[in-house]
Structure formats: C-alpha cells, structure tokens
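User: Good morning. I'm curious how tryptophan would be positioned relative to this chain. Could you predict the structure with it bound?
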Amino acid sequence: MSKKIFSGVQPTGNLHLGNYLGAIKNFVNLQKDEKNNCIYCVVDLHAITVKQDPKTLKKNIRETTAAFLASGLDPKKSIIFNQSMVPSHSEGAWLLGCIARMGWLNRMTQFKEKAGKDKEKASVGLYIYPILMASDILLYDATHVPVGEDQKQHLELTRDIAQKFNSDFNCPGFLIPPEPLIQENFSRIMSLKDGTKKMSKSDPSDQSRINMSDEKDQIINKIKKAKTDSAELPESDENLNKRPELINLYGIFSSLQNQSLNSTINEFKGKNFSDFKNKLAEVLVEKICPISNEINKLLKDKKYIDEVLASGSVLAEKIARKKVEDIKQKIGF
Ligand code: AMP
Ligand code: TRP
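Assistant: Good morning! Here's the predicted structure, ligand included:
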C-alpha cells in the first residue's frame, strides 16, 4: 500500500544522534520506497514557542535543511520545506484549535516538561504546540508519521482532533487519523552521561550527546568518556535493564549496524569494555562524519538550500491550501 508520510524536525540547533537514529534515518528509508509520498518539514513555527535569536534561527533553519539533505533526503523524491513559508499551517491550527479540548492539551507531558515549574511564564504557543503539529499532519492527509517515541502522545491528540472534527461535521473519513511510525527497537537514544535521560539538544553538557556536526576526534573522545558501569560485558540479555548506560550504547551500536541487540551481545561477550567502545567510536565516525562533512559543504551554498526550501514550499502550499479550503467549507465559511 502506498503511504503518505509527513514528519517535522525543529530547527533548534544541535541535531544529534537521537534525532538521526530516532527520526531522520527512518525518513530516508521511507523515501527509498517509490510507492511512498514523503513530505518533510523544518518546523520553524514550532521553534518559536521558546525564545529564539532571529539570526540564530535563520542559521538553524538552513542547518536542519542541510542535515536532511546530507542524510539522504532528496528534493526530487520528497517535498522538503519549512513551515513558516506555508501560511496554511497556521490557519489550519486556528481552525483545529477550536476542535481540540483544553482537557486534552492539559494531559500533554511534553508541555509539562518544557514549561517546567513556572507554567504561568510559558508561552501560549508552547501550550497549543500540539495543535499546530496536528495541522501540519492533517492538511496533507498523512497516513503515517515517523517520529521518536516522545511524540506518540502528540500523534494520539492529532487522531482525537481528526475524529472529533469528522464527527462534529458529520464527514466520516474526511480528516485522516495518522499512524505513528516509531522505530521498534532502540526508539529512545539516551544521554551519554546518564542512561535514564533522553539524549537532547537542550542538555547543557555537550558531552551528553553526539552532534551530527561533530568531528572524528570529538566523537572518539565522547565515547571514551561515556558513562558505563563496572560490570563485565554481558553474556546474555538477562538483567540488562539494570544497566541503562550499557544498554544505550549497545542500542546505538545495534541501530547503526542494523542488527539485533542479541547479535551485539554475542559479538562482544568475553571482550573488554575498551574493545567495545573503540568499535562503537569507529562505527560512529564511519556513519556520522560523512554526514557532518556534507552538512558543512552544503552550508557553504546558502542559495541552494534556500532554493530547496522555496520550491518545496510552493508544492506544499498547493496541497495544504486545498485542504484548508475544504475544512473551512465543512465549518460553514
Ligand atoms: P526535535 O528535535 O524535538 O524536533 O525532534 C526531532 C525528531 O527526533 C522527533 O521525531 C523526535 O521524536 C526524535 N528524537 C529527539 N530526541 C530523540 C532521542 N533521544 N531518541 C530518539 N528520538 C529522538
Ligand atoms: N513536535 C515534533 C518534535 O518536537 C516536531 C513536529 C512538528 C512534527 N510538527 C510535526 C513531527 C508533524 C511530526 C509531524 O519532534
């Protein structure tokens, strides 16, 4: 069956291995199947839900686009664009915001995490962020949305909005409740400093993550210093969940090598931690450095990147506009 794929990544800098293994690698695999219709968006309107410096934002939009291209997304095969160039997303968010319920938004754990202790000081945009995300997805009739596990709850909200709209306006099947596509294994890449915390752009310690722009020496150094326990490398997967740092490093290795956790366990049983870490660093350098080199090369040609976004936006706006008009008609405008 052909799938309509939509996904987005925020241009907030420091794209890291979690973004790559949890999302972007999957975007590229989906693009490989010619039956799929893929749309990938740099969600810059989502980025401004927290304060952004204008110059840095512009730089980050180009960097995220360069990371998409360097990882293998091809503007001839997929629509690649940025959200702020397609006004229908914001309009759709308003229309759908009148369908979503306060109670639904109040359950969103990402808002609670990002707003922190002082909720009153968070932007209203941060609170209604999942409605804009629903608009992104529903305007394209996306059937499948590849995301990391942390976005599952937002996808459920998108499904609820679609179903309520269809039922309120008596138009079954009009808005399509999308399916999340979440990596089955190793769906959450954790911090290199704490195996119980997600690898994240916002972690103040750069040692906690492998950035897509890291160079060879930085990668080797970060893996050397990555937290581990003092037990031996495992003989089997028994009790592994008591060793969060090890399971994370084994997960990263398995994911990069496209192999199962058990194959990794067998490959390293009886060996030393340093053997494993050396091999992991080697594989990371092999996979990440070509991408980071390509990102740097692409960033030298800003005009090309801007052109990719501009032509992608024209294609996206055409699809999204049509759906917004249909939604407005159902509402009674
Ligand atoms: P964001 O940078 O928050 O826009 O995330 C972009 C994509 O990367 C989303 O699909 C996230 O779910 C995914 N992602 C972010 N951090 C991680 C992580 N540590 N492990 C797996 N996926 C992640
Ligand atoms: N909220 C997503 C994140 O933080 C980014 C995003 C915005 C998105 N709109 C989307 C992802 C639509 C998938 C589909 O990662």
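The pocket of adenosine monophosphate (ligand 1) is lined by residues 9-10, 18-19, 22-23, 147-148, 150-151, 188-189, 198-199, 201 (CB under 6 Å). The chain has a mean pLDDT of 95.
Let me know if you'd like a different ligand tried.
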